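User: These chains co-purify. Model them together.
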Amino acid sequence: MNDMRLSERAVDAQNIKIAARNVQVYYGDNHAIKDVSVDIEDKTVTAFIGPSGCGKSTFLRCINRMNDTIDICRVEGDILIDGEDIYDREVDPVQLRAKVGMVFQKPNPFPKSIYDNVAYGPRIHGLSRGKSDLDDIVERALRRAAIWDEVKDRLSAPGTGLSGGQQQRLCIARAVATEPEVLLMDEPCSALDPIATAQVEELIDELRQNYSVVIVTHSMQQAARVSQKTAFFHLGHLVEYGETGHIFTNPEDPRTESYITGRIG
Amino acid sequence: MNAAQSSGVFGLGPTGLVVLAVIVLAAAGFVLARARAMASAGGDARRLHSLPNYYGYNAAMMIAVPALGVLVIWLLAQPALVQNAVLDLIPQRAIAEGSSINLVMSDVRRLAEGLDVAVAAGALSADEAADIVATGTDIRAVLGNVGVALGSDVDPEILAAAQEYRSLSRLWSWVMVAVVLSLALAGMAIALRSARAGFRARNAVERGVLWLLILAASLAILTTVGIVLSMLFETVNFFSLHPWQDFFLGTTWAPNFRGNSELSILPLLWGTLYIAFIALVVAVPIGLFAAIYLSEYAGPRLRSVAKPLLEILAGIPTIVYGLFALLTVGPALVTLFGRGEEGLLGLTWMTGATSVLTAGLVMGIMLIPFVSSLSDDIINAVPQSLRDGSFGLGATHSETIRQVVLPAALPGIVGAVLLAASRAIGETMIVVLGAGAIAKISANPLEAMTTITTRIVSQLTGDTDFASPETLVAFALGLTLFVLTLGLNVLALYIVRTYREQYE
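Assistant: Joint model of the two components:
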């Protein structure tokens, strides 16, 4: 956190990938997200931080319309990906989720083999032209998730038999296998030990070259380590959004400062 | 009426009196022990080891449990002991008339009990009952007046045995009263002596509760063992009268109460399995789809209505399903597949309402809630995170169910299907009314066939002679059925347990 070079970290791309305008989310009568507007850049890691229950996970789940699976959830406002409104009637949420991959808090490999776990998305969306093509896709995804060397000899072993860190990287491989453009990560390291966390963080930094990555995290150190942009949420409001180095060294809002110095949250 | 008084106070015999006495003693022990414990603590409950009531419970337990336990064992053992003693009084001549010693003994018992009843009702005085002679009085008429029917006139030997039976029974009853009461008093003395402030009454009561629970659990298991053993003995009897090759390998079921029956299980087993198969073909897809709809798609309000409704279906007595099969489904099937020109399809394939298809369809309907309720629980147990993972990859709801939820739930669903199969195999009332009574091996589902359960019913109803293979075959059938369903249940539990904890 005290690393002063953070502010000098280069942001590779400037074009806006995701643009949210005046987003409101309600769970029944509970107003969970209040008027959030944010621009998320392509080929960048953006971290959402904030105390528990501040709405950061809820907002993340709006980006691939995972909240549609919750009956009482209602979303207002616009979220645009590449200028296209994802809440438009024309958009099929199922297709959207293939483009916007998601990795969850707890590793959730399917009760299938490692190979079938990764091949699940490509098979559903018909991305491969044949068996060898699918093999290539699986290998590429596993390599990209930095787990290929550990599992290449046991692709038919069940994915649930891997260690926690391996399971989470398998889930990342599963998500990148569908060639998404955006990768959403909901506290991907909270169930992992420090070594597995380090591996996943390294992986997130590599994924930045191909994807726009949005990560929700409780660990401010993690946000500082992996992200270029940081958004601070508090009680459903987006309090502050900017360069990670800037947010951590020179926050503008007193609430942000209180949170990152450990006085609230 | 004074004669009636002599057999007990308030119309209770010695057994009733002693139970009452033990209960009174236990209540007294409760009060006394509690008071003693309080007194030893100087009236301050905080100085006791346990709450005051625990000392009372402990005393009541010490008084009642050993005394009543001995009472129960005594009551079970006494008739056998008395009978053995009386046995010597019965001459061989009385038995030789083509009956067995057991039948004679039951005459003795009935006569003895009849005399007691007559005394209690005031028809005879106690002395008259003791001095009654077979030749002088018409015992049969006297006992008939008080509602005890005897099969024949009474032999002097039988009467003598019955009098001996009465006096021995009376003697042992009073010994029993003495033993039980002294046990209760001894328990009371021990409990009262130990009711002091330092005594860990709470722990003692806890141990008592533990033993109560162990007793209940072992009773359940012992009963099962007893059922199996009783069937096993009768089955062994059957196989000593009938060749096992015919039972297991023959192909004809033709019981004949004049002997020379062909008693083969195969046609019955075929009918049983065929009907169970049709039932599962009906119940598994419908039940499973209903479970998928209810657990994955239905909203909470629909679910809260539909699930209890389905479970009501499971509570309908199977005889009602049997009536439904006989009166509704069977005739409907005949209209469809039978009656020639008058029928719907102009076919003559089916003649009677009872058939494998009738019973199978109705049994399938019976099993739907069973399958759906079990599958619903199993599908709900699949973690939401797996569904989220699949949705997050852009899978639709049905893809998620087909490729993630069902494979994860499969072991449990297989277990549910096997449990349903074992119910189908053991089901009786639906097949009694719906399947018919003809034992044969045929592939045509529109023919009447019969099952193991219906044959057990028919072999044991009516006038039966428990020494003939035609009756005893029911036990061999029952045991086979038991082994079959037990095997299925064990297999189902094994599958469910082996794969259950994988996703937690």
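The domain at 270-388+396-402+416-484 of chain B is CATH 1.10.3720.10 (MetI-like fold).
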